[in-house]
Amino acid sequence: MRYISTRGHAAPQAFCDILLGGLAPDGGLYLPESYPQINRAELDAWRKLSYADLAYEILAKFITDIPPADLKALVAKTYTAAVYCHTRNGGDAAQITPLTKLEDGLYTQELSNGPTLAFKDMAMQLLGNLFEYVLDKRGESINILGATSGDTGSAAEYAMRGKHNVKVFMLSPDGKMSAFQRAQMYSLQDANIFNIAVTGMFDDAQDIVKAVSNDAAFKAKYKIGAVNSINWARVAAQIVYYFQGYFLATKSNDEQVAFAVPSGNFGNICAGHIARQMGLPIARLVLATNENDVLDEFFRTGVYRPRTTAETNVTSSPSMDISKASNFERFVFDLVGRDPAVVSELWAKVDKGQAFDLSATVHWSKMPDFGFVSGKSTHIDRINTIRFAQGRYNVMLDTHTADGLKVALEHRLPSVPMIVLETAQPAKFEETIREALGQEPVRPVDLMGIEKLPQRVDVMAPDVEAVKRYLVERL
Ligand SMILES: *Cc1c(COP(=O)(O)O)cnc(C)c1O
């Protein structure tokens, strides 16, 4: 399997060659040159597999440059009940991403049972093991520089902690994350993890990362890398749980299901789109946004209009607060018949902050083939949905999953099971849970009192040169 760029001007690459990088050199995103097609016999055989074995079968179709036995071992060590141990509602940790039944034909799928209680662990844990393996093989090292407002940074740190030849430098806005989120990150004592709290906002932290990454000489000399959501391996890892959810919600491969996906950067639902393109019987992909509705607007109208920072809302489902969706280009590549010239033209506008409109094009007429519907949810919807799920089903939802359920209920099809992807646990968003339910969310036992652990964090002014010096001193 080789990987091509959505903009068409990069040489095809093998999986391990795109694993450690970000964008393709032409500014596009990498995608497989074609999607492997799953036949009925394979689907029947896969239904019986454990999560790790299923993950191996799926990933082996995309990763053909790691020897099968090695890939199998990496996947087996990633997807264990011990890593994804934070199950709730009686879920079976051995299933890794078990379903919680809300009522007949309506489920949540628990993707947040990993170390940081958010779905980003599903892919990031695999990435940690893949990075270590490939770097060891090549005798190379990498220094990951990132900015986080919460979920991504902690997932990256828990995936990379203690890994050979990897250091992580994570910038976060000083005092802007919850006490729990700070404790999750700053209490890590691993020598390869560095937390930098920037006295500013998330955007200041992000700007520093961009400035350092734009300094090509510095980047090459100090082997600076990233683990952001456009990384292809993260998307690939996420395809697996769509298959798992399908098998758990159905009895035979003649049935169809729908998935509802709380969305921000379009990484999670992009994996669902690919699972569907591979032949998984998905009737509908329901895309849910919060107040930051750039994607809902596109799927309703055909207009994609990236927002400015000033137009971007700070919401109570903060991991979906995006101004543009970094993975969306992958879907549009498929929508326009995989024509890189069209994608290049559209993103020439997006990269200048301009909108594009597909509504009057032949591409838009293909939209029904892709199974997408969408909707949006606001703070009051979120609060009401958390109350509804608690009252009706005795299930406590986090704020992002509540957005997913709110929109899912608007798009159910008769006799098609609806699976709402649970992207985080309520314990991460105590304040909003308190507002909705007047009670504290339950926290997994091993995370109780983490706010009291000693913390390792350096506070710095938002100064690019100072951050560069900090890195150089520690490499
Ligand atoms: C990252 C995140 C999302 C959004 O996922 P995308 O892949 O960016 O669409 C939703 N919910 C939670 C809890 C997240 O951490």
Cofactors, ions, other ligands: pyridoxal-5'-phosphate
What does the main sheet amount to? 6 strands, mixed
CATH structural class of one domain: Alpha Beta
3D shape: globular
Strand segment tally: 15
Strand order of the main beta sheet, please?
A: 3-4-14-9-10-13
Write down the overall mean pLDDT: 95
Number of helical runs? 18
Structural class: alpha/beta
Helix content: 40-55%
The rounded distance between the terminal residues' Cα atoms is 35 Å
Commentary on this structure:
The structure is a single chain. The protein is an alpha/beta fold. It has a domain at 93-117 and 233-437: Rossmann fold (3-Layer(aba) Sandwich), CATH 3.40.50.1100. The protein has 18 helices and 15 strands. The radius of gyration is 21 Å and the shape is globular. The two termini are 35 Å apart. Residues 118-120, 151, 229, 262-268, 319-320, 400, 423-424 line the site of pyridoxal-5'-phosphate. Pyridoxal-5'-phosphate is lined by residues 118-120, 151, 229, 262-268, 319-320, 400, 423-424.
